[in-house]
Design goal:
4-stranded antiparallel beta sheet, DNA polymerase, domain 1, Rossmann fold, about 50% helix, 6-stranded mixed beta sheet, Alpha-Beta Plaits, 16 strands, 5 domains, about 775 residues, alpha/beta, globular
Length: about 775
């Protein structure tokens, strides 16, 4: 389909921007423009040109921009080497990536981004969530990754051939002509060939030609391995070499794992932005931004742009003059309280719906909730939490600005000292943030490491933290580098960011997302207070800047090993229950049982391995992930897993029942009845079914823990109300399995004891205790 055909088909048009990909292409295609203030603007100019072209050619009814956030994604959590070979983004491009949000804001284009997900996942989720069939969806991108979304017939990919002006529009047919395979099979192709740009391993030894041939002859990964499992001779008869067949057999787990990494997610927890972009557009805002960056030639084109954006039936009207019918269509007449409860009800009914619309009949939804025995979740947990979370958000947590400035200043000074020390140890100056330059210093000049050091897709020895950890003590530069990296991250993520987020009372106000996770757990954002580090001394020091309001103390209440206790509660495993009743070290107890040694003979390595598998069971960790975390061979990981399941037969039986029940009913339940559905468990490809199985194992445990802490929050709030402590006891934060309150000094001791008792009594008649570790302090660091 051509651009002209799209214009004439009469359908509404939605344009989705893969912003980072566009900016990256523009940065390398455009001259190095610089504004009068000295700021780099070449990539911004390219993005602006792209927007002008999109608006002129497609006359979109809505535009949405997807962004990548800094920090790890779920792919990084699954595979530490993901994108390890990528060269560090140049500072000029980093600056323009941030400044691009101002450019998009001047066009009133909404921006979507989500921690843990990439922009491609945002785009895939939008395509999945927007169900309007009478809609053309144009994805503007700069690379091939989004081509797999062409499986949806509404989608077209508008991308750059060369430079910034030479564009091409792909539909599924044109993409198949280019790549030789159906676009929906591009992730399968990457799973076979690998993807050097993202450091996806694939099947070592299978290249572009063989990967394409396999897919053309047999289909995707699932179909290839079905054919291989039934009759390997079929592949040989089809002309596939014995060597390739053997590679496929030996690397099945790697291929399936690579497919998960390469597949665009369609379940990112995002809310759809409001419609009506055309009505919001203000040419004067665009002009103002262009003036600040010196885009004089583009300013002259704004009048034509304005006329393109205004629909014919709106010309001559004021922008705000929408009709009653239009207002209803846009769903902007809605009681915010009803809308919030509607979203909550929709999410309780389907916790995979991470972006509930809030549009619907609340009373009907509540009737459905009751019919599915979800009233306890909805009425005893989620509804009572609404005012509790709002009060916590409004209260905020105080920051000692002097201590913040002192700590940041000290870290910057120390970073300078470490930089000089690294240069001295290296014997030369170089870009410490460049993996390529650092690798050259460490492994060529200083000759560190050995043949077992991991390499990136480019053949360069990896300098990721996990690899440098292996070299600790080999040379002073290694420990210095690790300290440098930690400090740099703490500054860029927290200390240098917090000042701009403080209100006039020096408080940070996080926002709790009640429907942020399918398991039922709360999340927080703007800022995310749940990720402030605690494992290192320098990370813990950040918590010292958060201080109690004058006349108050902080009080922390932290559940001990709540996920493992939830597993014991759900599985009724006799050995786990026995261990928890004894009140000992659960990881040492498990190690003693697994290694068949007395508890006093359990060493650190035994305990570490037991801890890995304890949490691995909860998170549905497979052999490949367990192997990596244990730093063992595959055979050792398999043997260790088998030993665990033989020892804890109650857990084994429970997990099998969960998987069977999920397949039969389509959902799992927590101890308290919260549900999670798995539509792909019986109908999706095998790799998705296996992923759903892992989720089915994990969700009841995680969800039970989430339910317990939510019930605790509700129980404590009832106590506060009953005792008329509303002015003296304030919930501030929920950090994983911990609640942090601010309590008036004169009652802090007595109230803390009451809160501890309430939280330990949340689970009715439990077979094991749910102990709370509590503490008081005047700073978060004291807790």
């Amino acid at each position: 389909m051509t651009v002209e055909e799209i214009r004439k088909n009469g359908k509404r048009t939605l344009v989705l921007l893969d912003t980072h990909a566009i900016l990256h292409r523009a940065y390398h295609a455009m001259p190095g423009f610089v504004s009068s203030k000295g700021e780099p603007t070449g990539a911004l100019y390219g993005l602006a040109l792209m927007l002008f072209s999109i608006i002129k050619e497609f006359k979109p009814n809505q535009i949405i921009a997807a962004f990548d956030l800094p920090g790890p994604t779920f792919r990084d959590e699954m595979y530490k080497e993901y994108k390890a070979g990528r060269v560090k983004i140049e500072d000029d491009l980093v600056y323009q990536l941030n400044r691009a949000k101002d450019l998009l804001a001047s066009f009133d284009i909404p921006i979507l981004e989500k921690e843990g997900f990439e922009a491609d996942d945002i785009l895939g989720t939008l395509v999945e969530k927007i169900k309007d069939k009478n809609l053309e969806i144009i994805i503007a991108s700069g690379d091939m990754d989004t081509m797999s979304l062409l499986a949806d017939k509404r989608v077209k990919v508008y991308t750059l051939k060369t430079g910034i002006k030479d564009t091409i529009l792909y539909d599924a047919k044109k993409a198949e002509e280019k790549y030789g395979i159906a676009p929906e099979l591009i992730p399968d192709y990457k799973a076979l060939r690998g993807d050097p740009s993202d450091n996806i391993i694939g099947v070592a030894g299978i290249g572009e030609k063989t990967g394409t041939e396999l897919i053309q002859k047999f289909g995707g990964i699932e179909e290839i391995y079905k054919a291989l499992g039934k009759n390997r001779q079929k592949l040989l008869d089809a002309g596939i070499k014995e060597r390739i067949v053997k590679l496929l057999e030996d690397n099945e787990e790697e291929a399936r794992f690579s497919l998960v990494l390469a597949t665009i997610r369609i379940d990112a927890p995002i809310d759809l932005p409001p419609d009506g972009w055309q009505k919001r557009f203000r040419p004067e805002k665009v002009r103002g931004f262009f003036e600040t960056v010196g885009f004089k030639s583009l300013i002259l084109r704004i009048p034509n742009l304005d006329q393109t954006i205004i629909s014919p039936h709106l010309r001559g009207q004021t922008r705000g003059g929408t009709t009653a019918e239009e207002i209803i269509e846009l769903n902007i007449v809605q009681d915010p309280e009803i809308e919030y409860k509607t979203k909550l009800a929709q999410w309780v009914l389907d916790s995979n719906n991470s972006a509930p619309s809030g549009v619907g009949d609340l009373s009907k939804l509540e009737t459905e909730i009751a019919s599915k025995n979800l009233d306890r979740i909805y009425r005893e947990m989620e509804l009572p939490l609404i005012p509790i979370l709002r009060r916590a958000e409004g209260r905020g947590i105080k920051v000692d600005q002097k201590e913040l400035a002192r700590l940041a200043g000290g870290y910057h000074t120390k970073l300078d000292v470490l930089t000089k020390k690294i240069y001295e140890l290296a014997g030369e100056q170089f870009n410490i943030a460049s993996p390529k330059q650092l690798s050259k210093i460490l492994f060529e000049k200083l000759a560190l490491g050995g043949p077992k050091q991991k390499k990136t897709s480019t053949g360069q020895i990896s300098t990721r933290a996990g690899e440098l950890d292996k070299l600790k003590g080999a040379h002073p530069i290694v420990d210095t580098l690790l300290e440098y990296r930690e400090l740099a991250k703490l500054l860029s993520t927290y200390l240098d960011v917090f000042p701009a987020l403080l209100d006039s009372d020096s408080k940070l106000h996080t926002h709790f997302v009640q429907w942020g996770a399918a398991t039922g757990r709360l999340s927080s954002k703007d800022p995310n207070m749940q990720n402030i580090p605690i494992k290192t001394e320098q990370g813990r020091a950040i918590r010292e800047v958060f201080v109690a309001t004058k006349g108050y103390k902080f009080a922390s209440f932290d559940y001990s090993q709540i996920d493992l206790r939830s597993l014991a509660l759900l599985s009724s495993d006799e050995k786990l229950i026995e261990f928890f009743k004894s009140g000992g070290d659960i990881h040492a107890d498990v190690a003693s049982a697994l290694f068949n040694v007395p508890k006093d003979k359990v060493d650190k390595e035994m305990r570490r391995r037991a801890k890995v598998i304890n949490f691995g069971i909860i998170y549905g960790m497979g052999v490949l992930a367990l192997k990596a975390n244990l730093n063992s061979s595959r055979a050792e990981a398999e043997e260790f897993l088998a030993r665990y399941f033989n020892t804890f037969s109650g857990v084994t039986k429970y997990l099998e029942q969960v998987k069977k029940g999920a397949r039969e009913r389509g959902y799992t339940e927590t101890y308290f009845g919260r549900r999670r559905y798995y539509p792909e468990l019986n109908t999706g490809p095998e790799y998705m079914q296996k992923a759903a199985e892992r989720q089915a194992q994990n969700a009841p445990v995680q969800g039970t823990s989430a339910d317990i802490i939510k019930l605790a929050m509700v129980g404590v709030d009832k106590y506060i109300e009953k005792k008329n402590f509303r002015d003296g006891v304030h919930l501030l934060l929920q950090i994983h399995d911990e609640l942090i309150y601010e309590i008036k000094e004169e009652v802090a001791e007595s109230v803390s004891k009451e809160i501890k008792n309430i939280m330990e009594s949340v689970v009715p008649n439990p077979p094991i205790p749910f102990p709370i570790k509590s503490s008081l302090g005047i700073s978060w660091g004291d807790l």
